[in-house]
Amino acid sequence: MGSQPHDATPGGAGASVPAETTESAESHHSDVTLRVNGTSRTLTLDHRRALLDVLREDLDLTGAKKGCDHGQCGACTVLVDGRRVNSCLLLAVSLDGREVVTVEGLGDGDGEVHPLQQAFLDRDAFQCGYCTPGQICSALGAVDEAAMGHPSHVTDPGRPSGRPMPLDRDEIRERLSGNLCRCGAYPHIVDAVEDVIR
Questions:
Q1: How confident is the model at residue 9 (pLDDT cuts 50, 70, 90)?
Q2: Domain that residue 189 falls in
Q3: What is the reported pLDDT for 5?
Q4: Do 77 and 138 have their domain in common?
Q5: What is the mean pLDDT of residues 119-135?
Q6: CA-wise closest residue to 131 among 75, 61, 64
Q7: Same domain as 120, residue 63
Q8: Which of 2, 59, 105, 126 lies 20 to 30 Å from 38 when distance is taken between CA atoms?
């Protein structure tokens, strides 16, 4: 048995190899306008880029963290049009014209922090702080969801949806269950949210 010459072409000899691309690089990019923390930003973005990467790498907003990069830890939580989202899962190009708020945009702009940020400080609701920006954005979204009457898994099924939901400790825990804290500061996080909704 003689050795056959190795053909590195996929599919063997004579197989056609697709060209790198016949389209220009611009066809994979679009101009996107985002209103981020109150400022309108127009960026030319690759269609495959996640919002988290655009915030951190292009806009230098590093509050939202890359934890799992699979939407399971909540460290990347930001608010889009007032709703909490995992920014690692959202393609930035799909958010043209939308309002994005990160933890950096929660204060009043004059050095005053948001009441929830202050509650986290007062209650010592963090240790390493890695998850804290996502926890705060998620808590703000959860409070708004409850105010709009969105039920959670632990909401009394007999309670009609669409009416404001009171947030007790069980509701807060359930609504923030998608945000992980490896340091285990959960009781203090719940305390901080309770302080703000009283």
A1: very low
A2: 115-197
A3: 46
A4: no
A5: 96
A6: 75
A7: no
A8: 126
CATH classification of the domain holding 165: 1.10.150.120
For residue 171, how many other CB atoms are within 10 A of its CB? 21
Q: How far apart are CA 101 and CA 109, in angstroms?
A: 13
Which strand ranges, in their side-by-side order, compose the sheet holding 39-46?
39-46, 29-36, 99-101, 77-80, 83-86
pTM, full prediction: 0.84
Q: Which tokens sit at 71?
A: 């939407």
CB proximity list for 26: less than 8 A, separation 6 or greater: none
Q: For the domain that residue 83 is a member of, what is the CATH number? A: 3.10.20.30
Q: Give the pLDDT confidence of 145-163 residue by residue, as tens digits.
A: 999 999 999 999 888 878 8
Confidence of residue 18 (pLDDT cuts 50, 70, 90): low
- Residue 5 domain-assigned? no
